[in-house]
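User: I'm putting together a teaching handout on how sequence relates to shape, and I'd like one worked example. Could you take WD40-like Beta Propeller Repeat from Paenibacillus plantiphilus, show the sequence you're using, and then write out its predicted structure as tokens right after it?

Assistant: Happy to. First the sequence, then the structure tokens directly below it.
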Amino acid sequence: MEQGRSIKVWIRGMCTRGLVYLLIALALAAASGCEAEKSNDDHAANSAVEPASGNGRKADNPPSGDTERAPSDQAAATAAPETATSNGDPSAAAAPVYTDEEYAALIASQFNKVHQLDKAGEGEYFYELAVLGENEVVYGMDNGDGFELVQHDFRTGKTRSIISLKGELISLTFSPERQMLDISYSLNDAWKFKAWSFSAGELKGNLRTVLAENEKWSLVRSDKGGGIWGVARDGSGKFKLTDNALDHSPWWIPGTNQFVFLAHTNRKINDGSGYEYALILYDMDTRKWKELSFDKGPWKILGWMEPGKKLLVDHAFNEGVDLNYTEPYIVDLELIEEYPLFSAGMDAYDLAFNASSRSFAVTISGYLAFYDQKGDIHSLEPWLVYSSEQLGSPFTYSPDGKRGAYLVKAAPTSDGASGALGRLVITDAYGREPMVLHDYNLPVISFEWSPDGKAIACFIQNSHGSFIVMKELESLGGTSGRGN
């Protein structure tokens, strides 16, 4: 994949399927004095219970509905998770009360690997989660004077600080070949860069963030100034290609030293919906560029539908709206033509591009819609199990393009507590064969795939603590379901 993939994921919720589950792990049963009961009711088998929820990314105070621990004479009655009501709707279950130790045991019962963040860090902001492999993660935390990057190894259980920096973390971004983790941050209104080397296991004094690479050149952001820079991969030269700091999205034309990118024109769109961008073709051999004769306006390049010939782009303007609406177009670089893939007024959002199959997915009301390499509809998959559940995150492809994941959120209760809870669902690349990652509704803040797509990591946080967890997908087995 040519583009460095942003690690940042904004989570909003998703759909799930039924699993028979233990109402609580033996450790919780022992702590609470309650014997876990397995429900034989078909609806209960498709339901999930709701541990008390946190809200947002900071674990400060219990949100509405997250009550304090009951007195000791009530502990046995409140420690065990409560099952859903007879209609099988998981969002209808009342939130039980846990001690911190019970909640940690519940998390441990659901995932292969668990790292609980230091209690001393409770209340600090979690920034980013980068998955280096099936056993290693890097995450960022606010340290009060800036941010700290921390590495955790699930094999050894060891956690170590990589670096503490003043300023504000902007993003953690894998280099195109996934050999470096590029760190972008701001300090005194200036962009700064560092990089973590996977192979060397150490921090490099990197002065750039890689945007795209071919065999000869790297296209980067540099601390030397705004715009896009070209850097020879053999170290023989570095020079500035564009001047505007808002120029972005360079994509190499395979087999050449030419690339296209989006240039900020400094002109506002006539209807006031943001600034214009133009599609530019740049030739690194001649150091010349030309503007391609496409309409100017909102642009986002998503990837090659036909390498070197046809791009998938998005012309939607989204500033100030809650949903990430999409207007996908095919841009033909040979014919210098573009055409829309959706009819006018189609209410689609959260487009995800699969670089492996040159296909994509969007969300529409009640469904995930999947499109093939030509932009034709391939299939529709419902994401709702229960009418009260809400899809809360975009469909996200694994790095190898073979699977997808999304979050389904329990509907908010009258006090709003349940809206922060959800379950992560794993599917194939077309949204089929859904498998629930965990049995209980949990406050999942973000999730990330492992590089090989065989595991997935989540950040979970509420007033009981902060956890980074990982689950190997083979452990889910082959069962699936959406409820009947």
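A couple of points you could highlight for students: The mean pLDDT is 75. The longest strand covers residues 258-268.
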